[in-house]
Please model this.
Amino acid sequence: MTDFGTLALGSQVAQAGAGVANGVTQSNAIRAQASYDRAAAEENAKLIDRQAQDAAERGAQDVTLIGNRGKQIIGTQRARLAAQGIDVTSGSALDVQTDAAVMSEMDKLTAKNNAAREVYGYRSQASAVRSGASLQAMGARNRARSTLLESYISGSKDIMLGAYYYDQMKGLNKDSAADRKKAADFATLKASDPYQKR
Model:
């Protein structure tokens, strides 16, 4: 003899188990996606770090080139002035060389400043990528926990409903027409239960 209560309880327990298993699967999928996203963000941040390093190196090269060009200009000025018999250590000749040196230094400072701004921009971008990845990972952890919690709560509800159905239908025999009618009436009532619907 099969008891309708046992069937109802078994059905609800199976439903609870399936719901919890689904919740665990979803939670694991959320965590795996978050792990992948964080690794991808870190790789992007590393690429941006390399761009910052490249900008710093290019800036240093520019400063060196500008300094060398300034020295060449001053050297050329001294040679031309000396070839004309002008004393290069005083007067207007010295002023021209001093102006060239000052302009070279200003160009070097501009190059340093431009490189520093570019490096700062890249480093800020890399930092933002890493921070965003951390926030996304935290959100994913919370979603994964919430998914698990919801599945456990839903599973507990299913088991409690199963216990209630068992209590209402225990002893009803599927071979008895009267018991089948009672079980059908209860099933109709169960189907209209707003808490049963998900």
